[in-house]
């Protein structure tokens, strides 16, 4: 089965950064499978928007922190590839799904730690591992980190430590998957105005001002600042970028 169109799988693609990534990928002529955790209607609205732009798209439910569900998830992916895209492989995996928990180191519970670990690190590790047989040689994997892995703001010790792990993992994936021609990079957004982490950067004027003051370009980031970079990394123009951390923060804390 051959579909000449490239296909991207974007986790957490129903809103925020993931939605923007999905739309920007479609603009580049790439078909999209996006996942959602609970917001099915929002996910289907993104699918409709992509289809309106002339690309194919599908939405699948995934809890990115529920590692035991991944086998059945990939069975659904296989069915969707066949039914919607007339193929059996995809090209680009974008590990975007995430949550934000703001809590001091002293007050971080084991439950919160485990939730962050499962979604941001263990889930990414094993979702990517299970995706390998379905990714075409010459494909791309893009992981998401955070500016918080480079600079430190109180309250993000667990989240940022998981992202530090993702950055190291990305280099190892690039090394081990190079034989298949698969490039692996990590995109690290700065502070972005979305509903992530309760929407603090967007809705709390004090936080927003703090971000502006720390950013060379003088404002907080928007989803549209990130999606195009992820889409670019899936194009031929980016074929020689591999094992790299690309921070997209407008120059935070330079």
List keywords for this structure.
8 helices, globular, Rossmann fold, alpha/beta, 254 residues, 7-stranded parallel sheet
Topology:
Elements: E1 7-10, H1 16-27, E2 31-36, H2 40-52, E3 57-61, H3 70-85, E4 90-95, H4 110-131, E5 135-144, H5 157-177, E6 183-189, H6 200-203, H7 205-214, H8 224-233, E7 245-248
Parallel strand pairs: 1-2, 1-4, 2-3, 4-5, 5-6, 6-7
Helix pairs in contact: 1-2, 1-8, 4-5
Written account of the structure:
The chain has eight helices and seven strands, in the order βαβαβαβαβαβαααβ. It has a seven-stranded parallel sheet, with helices on both faces. It has helices at 16-27, 40-52, 70-85, 110-131, 157-177, 200-203, 205-214, 224-233; strands at residues 7-10, 31-36, 57-61, 90-95, 135-144, 183-189, 245-248. It has one domain (7-243): Rossmann fold. With 254 residues, the chain is of the alpha/beta class. The N and C termini lie far apart (49 Å).
In short:
The protein has 254 residues and is α/β, with parallel strands linked by helices. Helix content is 43%, strand content 17%.
Q: How many distinct beta strands? A: 7
Enter the CATH topology name: Rossmann fold
Task: Return the domain count.
Answer: 1
Averaging pLDDT over every residue, what do you get?
Answer: 96
How many helices does DSSP assign?
Answer: 8
**Distance between the amino and carboxyl termini:** 49 Å
Q: Which regions contain 5 or more consecutive residues with pLDDT less than 50?
A: none
Share of residues in strands: 15-25%
| Secondary-structure element series | EHEHEHEHEHEHHHE
Q: For the record, what is the CATH homologous superfamily label?
A: NAD(P)-binding Rossmann-like Domain
The largest sheet is: 7 strands, parallel
Give the strand line-up of the largest sheet.
Answer: 3-2-1-4-5-6-7
Q: What is the CATH class?
A: Alpha Beta
The residue fraction in helices comes out at: 40-55%
The CATH architecture is 3-Layer(aba) Sandwich
- Rg over alpha carbons: 17 Å
